[in-house]
Amino acid sequence: MKEEIGKILLYLTGVLLVIGLIGIVHALTFGFIAPVYDIRKSKEWLWKARASTDLNVMADYMDKALDEIKDRHGNPCWFFRTIETDFEIIKTILQQNIMAAREIALTEPKGSYGYQRAIDNIQEVIIEINEHLSICMDWLTIFSIPSIVQLILWIVITTTFCIIGLWSVG
Predict the structure, then answer these.
(1) In whole angstroms, what is the distance from residue 157 CA to residue 143 CA?
(2) The whole model's pTM is what?
């Protein structure tokens, strides 16, 4: 009788582990990628802007990046909120740099020291904004409260059934 219960518990543990692995794949796909897809696209537009040597093109790419995150508001960091993860500040900095790029493109000739200095400055800002967006993505996925609760539940349930499976075999 004990052997039959042990086999059933072991089989049940295996089934639950497979379901847990499917849940992890599902969470990675829909829990980690989908909620931050707009931020990922924004980051890619910013990298394209950084690769450009034309201020108008940089401004166009930054404008597309801004459009991707226009619906984001507030601060995704729920623990020790900082200004680096505040979407309003990120969008304001982007907007300021778009305007600066367009203004300098009108007043400075291409190839001049001022034009090149503006490109260098905006490229540095793009790197910083991309770092801030990466931190935001972490807080929206890995460090989000639902992700932490899901991880704790998965660990508790898996550990419980592993203990039960080992007890039933032994």
Answers:
(1) 20
(2) 0.72
